[in-house]
Amino acid sequence: MQIVINRNWKCIYTAYGYQNYFKIIGQLKQKGISYKTKIPMNLRVGRYYDNTQYDIYVKKDLEHKAIEALNHQ
């Protein structure tokens, strides 16, 4: 079932660290684009440095709009 659900979503960006993640999802939210996030692994190194990987997905029919939103910073 998970495969059928994921077939409608496209990974448009992989962010590393929470600051980059919040910057990207902020741009998507500003344009009203819904998204999903997956965290495949946690590479946190040290107390003050976050290198967590965030894969950001949007619905396939919104892919063009999402990429356009990210390119117009």
Radius of gyration: 13 Å
Approximately how much helix is present in the residues?
25-40%
Largest sheet: 3 strands, antiparallel
Oligomer: single chain
Shape estimate? globular
Find the count of extended strands (DSSP E, 2+ residues). 3
Number of helices: 3
Q: Structural class of the secondary elements?
A: alpha+beta
First-last Cα distance: 36 Å
Average residue pLDDT = 85
- From N to C, what is the helix and strand string? HEHEEH
Uncertain runs are none
Strand order of the largest sheet: 1-3-2
Tell me what you see in this structure.
There is one protein chain. With 73 residues, the protein is an alpha+beta fold. It is 37% helix and 25% strand. It has 3 helices and 3 strands, in the order αβαββα. It has helices at 2-6, 18-30, 63-71; strands at residues 9-16, 36-38, 53-59. A 3-stranded antiparallel β-sheet has the order 1-3-2. It is globular. The model has no long low-confidence stretch (mean pLDDT 85).
